[in-house]
Write a structure and sequence with these properties.
With about 475 residues, the protein is an alpha/beta fold. The protein is built from 15 helices and 19 strands. The protein has three domains: about 100 residues, 3-Layer(aba) Sandwich (Rossmann fold), CATH 3.40.50; about 130 residues, Response regulator (Rossmann fold, 3-Layer(aba) Sandwich); about 160 residues, Alpha-Beta Plaits (2-Layer Sandwich). The structure holds 3'-deoxy-guanosine-5'-triphosphate and magnesium ion (2 copies). The site of one magnesium ion (MG) has 5 residues, from strand 12.
């Protein structure tokens, strides 16, 4: 994940320190040493995130934050306030000014990257969400189909030993929670978790078992894979915390838990979860017949072309590109010939479902022709897209397909071509042509394989898996 981060601090050394850490992880830093400059750059550069020092002469961070949030152009950019360790009052004022999160000075790496990644993901979700609503709105001529952001109270699962601290957390969450289920052991948490839970807040250590085991199990299981997990750790547990974040926990808090921080992080995680769910639901909501494919419920060719056009037009220079995966069922005509058209339709529907399970919710899946599909993957490089493509190829080839009206099982394979946008721009047609050529090469190479399209300068496709 790459992102552009505006770092604002009046002390040059602080800016340089953050810049060094962030660019090491391939984030791009835009520096600013005062509030007015930060406002100007936020508007002209539209960064993905703003790290904002509170204490600055002339215009302080709080005022900068208020102005950013009041400006419609910059209101969606997440703001992380950087405050001194002891300044709890600052945090409260930061929240009131509209900040999305905090970092305390001196900024440690785990905190920095956890927060930056979490907020960049939130922003990406929001962009994708808005974009899809816009493209839909254009087609459905404003029938009020666009959904407002859901800010209703959430169901939260708290995993923590019973005691004063747990009670205080439950109390603190009252304004944002419809219910807080309190599990006092890992075993209990395992029983209480289900798809209605929108956030898990979990202590990093529990007496009965290792909560990190749960984190990894929950990430592996279909029903809980999307649930955000906020870990609560002690100051001395940083290595285990880093492991938790690696395993897929979304963010963390350090004990003693600061109420405002808890609330801010809870809100961020729930917002992101809901946007993500809404994106996913759009697939099933039968947006409008003009945009979806009736047989599979996926987007149709018309929609995906409009969406891609919009994505390409908005793509910043030098970012990670957008990947396009194009795939086609191998020898599908034989399936129809042997088993009949309805059986073929079953295969198409099941293929659509398997594909949706292999991709992220920001990815867009469309059926663009009879047995031809496209997946659009924002912020994905060629290597990443090839990994997803091969995972999909295996998810199809490894498990025979079932027909709903018979007992028979049928092996199916797909051939896949992937291409990624290149710097300097390229037309939509050219991009799709490269993906299509790669798909053609996969067919010619023997089918059931993935071929990555080379950049348009050299013409030789490279086979990477079969
Ligand atoms: P290849 O490996 O080269 O892709 O071979 P193929 O047989 O899959 O390709 P071909 O283009 O020759 O045939 C595509 C077949 O897909 C023809 C048609 O019967 C079938 N098909 C297209 N749309 C549908 C559909 O909506 N339902 C069903 N059941 N079949 C479809
Ligand atoms: Mg300062
Ligand atoms: Mg085919």
């Amino acid at each position: 994940m790459t992102a552009r981060i505006l770092v604002v601090d009046d002390v040059e050394l602080n800016v340089r320190l953050l810049e060094a850490k962030l660019s090491n992880e391939y984030f791009e830093v835009i520096p600013a040493d005062n509030g007015p400059l930060a406002l100007e750059l936020a508007e002209s550069e539209l960064p993905d995130i703003i790290l904002l020092d509170v204490m600055m002469p002339r215009m302080d961070g709080l005022e900068v934050c208020r102005r950013l949030k009041a400006n419609p152009r910059t209101t969606d950019i997440p703001v992380v306030m950087v405050t001194a360790l002891s300044d709890i009052a600052d945090r409260l004022r930061g929240l009131e000014a509209g900040a999305d999160d905090f970092l305390t000075k001196p900024v440690n790496d785990i905190a920095l990257f956890a927060r930056v990644r979490s907020l960049v993901r939130l922003k990406r979700m929001m962009e994708e969400f808005r974009l899809r609503e816009e493209v839909c709105g254009r087609f459905s001529s404003g029938n009020g189909a666009e959904a407002a952001e859901d800010t209703s109270p959430a169901s939260i699962l708290l995993l923590k030993e019973p005691g004063f601290a747990a009670t205080r957390i439950v109390e603190t969450l009252t304004p944002v929670a419809k219910a807080v289920l309190h599990a006092t052991s890992c075993a209990e948490a395992q029983i209480l978790i289900d798809h209605s839970i929108e956030l898990v807040i979990a202590s990093l250590t529990m007496p009965d078992a290792d909560p990190l085991r749960l984190v990894s199990q929950w990430r592996a299981s279909e029903a809980t894979r999307q649930v955000p997990i906020l870990l609560i750790a002690g100051e001395g547990e940083l290595p285990r915390l880093a492991k938790g974040l690696d395993l897929g926990a979304t963010d963390y808090l350090i004990r003693p838990v600061d109420r405002n921080e808890l609330l801010a992080r809870t809100r961020t995680q729930i917002r992101r979860k809901r946007l993500q769910d809404q994106l996913r639901e759009n697939y099933h909501r039968g947006l409008s017949l003009a945009l979806t494919d009736e047989l599979t419920g996926l987007y149709n060719r018309r929609y995906v072309l409009a969406h891609l056009n919009e994505l390409l037009a908005r793509m910043p220079e030098g970012g990670t590109g957008t990947a396009v995966m194009m795939f086609d069922i191998d020898r599908f005509k034989q399936v129809n010939d042997r088993y009949g058209h309805p059986a073929g339709d079953d295969v198409l529907r099941e293929l659509a479902e398997r594909t949706l399970r292999q991709v992220r919710s920001v990815d867009l899946v469309a059926r663009i022709g009879g047995e031809e599909f496209v997946v659009v993957m924002p912020e994905t490089n060629l290597a990443g897209a090839a990994v997803v493509a091969d995972r999909l190829r295996l998810a199809v080839a490894d498990q025979p397909f079932t027909f709903h009206h018979r007992d028979e099982k049928l092996p199916v394979t797909v051939s896949i071509g992937v291409a990624v946008t290149q710097d300097g721009g390229e037309s939509l047609d050219a991009l799709l042509k490269r993906a299509d050529d790669a798909l053609y090469a996969a067919k010619n190479g023997g089918r059931n394989r993935v071929v990555a399209a080379p950049p348009s300068l050299s013409r030789m496709p490279i086979a990477i898996a079969s």
